[in-house]
Amino acid sequence: MTDVRVRLLMLSVLILPLAACGPPPPEGLSGDWRAQLDLAGGPLHFHIELTEGETLSGQLCNATKCDPFSGVARLPGDSLLLEMGDYAAAIRVNVRGDSLVGFYRNVGNRGPRTIPFTASRGTWPGAAPSESLVGQWDATFEPDTRPSPRVLDFRRTERGPGGHHRLEHGRLRALLGGRGG
User: Fold this and answer.
1) Nearest one of 26, 42, 162 to 100, comparing CA atoms
2) Of 26, 80, 117, 177, which one's alpha carbon is 20 to 30 angstroms from that of 11?
3) Residues 115, 139 within the same domain
4) In this structure, are residues 147 and 139 in contact, taking their beta carbons and an 8 Å threshold?
5) Predicted local confidence at residue 95, as pLDDT
6) Average pLDDT over residues 161-165
7) Which of 127, 119, 128 is closest to 34 using CA atoms?
């Protein structure tokens, strides 16, 4: 064999096993996703946690409050459907590498609506709530019957599991002789 042929043979022995490996497998869907709805007034940030096992499941979190999706389904192609039965709503997304891109859909009091949705791996950086929200606030709830005055008392609390500071729900006291919780 000539020297060139030997080199080509050696090079192919080294390269072919690497080529057979192909690209690394994509990371699964399990984990934390920082998500947002692109509302007219600005983005609404929240957190999604997905878990892959025998089935795919997940939950939507806002600060420390998490609600499980009523259904998580893989759709044909690279799509997912995240259902929120209690809200008659769903998020349908296409998986694009480390991103989820799609739409949130529900039927609100003004009819059906569709809102752009995006998510990427990770969590949102924690940010302290504005000091201007902490304290007591006069509020009036206006149900169909009669106005109902209340005092809202917000206090700062610890950082939640998603890294977010949150405002404690505080106390709600009735001014009309009732007792708030």
Assistant:
1) 26
2) 26
3) no
4) no
5) 94
6) 46
7) 119
**Backbone φ, ψ for residue 134 (5° rounding):** -75, 135
Please, which residues have CB within 8 angstroms of residue 103's CB and are 6 or more apart in sequence?
91, 92, 114, 115, 116, 117
Structural domain count of the chain: 2
Within this chain, do residues 101 and 158 fall inside the same structural domain, yes or no? no
| 100 touches 84 (CB < 8 A) | no
Tens-digit pLDDT profile for residues 66-82: 999 999 999 999 999 99
- Same structural domain for residues 86 and 165? no
First-to-final CA distance of the chain? 89
Tell me if 22 is assigned to some domain: no
User: Rounded to two decimals, what is the model's pTM?
Assistant: 0.59
Q: What is the CATH number of the domain that holds 65?
A: 2.40.128.120
Examine the domain organization and report whether 114 and 155 are in the same domain.
no
Token pair 């949130």 is at which residue?
A: 104
pLDDT tens string 38-52? 998 889 999 999 999
**Going by C-beta distance under 8 Å and a sequence separation of 6 or more, which residues neighbour residue 171?**
151, 153, 180, 181
